[in-house]
Sequence to fold (102 residues):
Amino acid sequence: MEQLLEQLDQNLKDLYRKALDADAILEDIQQQGHGNYQTIFVNDKSFQVSSNRFMPYLSEAAEQVAAMRQTQQFNTATLQRVVKQIQLLHKTLADFRQAITK
Fold:
């Protein structure tokens, strides 16, 4: 279990810098009068939070990993949800990075 938690932590660390950078870019875009959207993940039930920035989504995933670490217990549904959240964040941040470099 510890190895699994370490892998989740490493993924969260990898996402942290990417999310910070993406949120800074989104802030710049919004200050220029563009990017008038409400949420990053529209109609996606993977996250309970709804935000126009990446960090709240990353925080939600990190909180679930921290809860699993603290209790040293997790069920399959929680693990699947966290893994899906991390995968969505990786994919969406990569797509975002690719879109802004075009």
About this structure: The chain has a mean pLDDT of 91. The two ends are 41 Å apart (CA to CA). The first helix runs from residue 2 to 31.
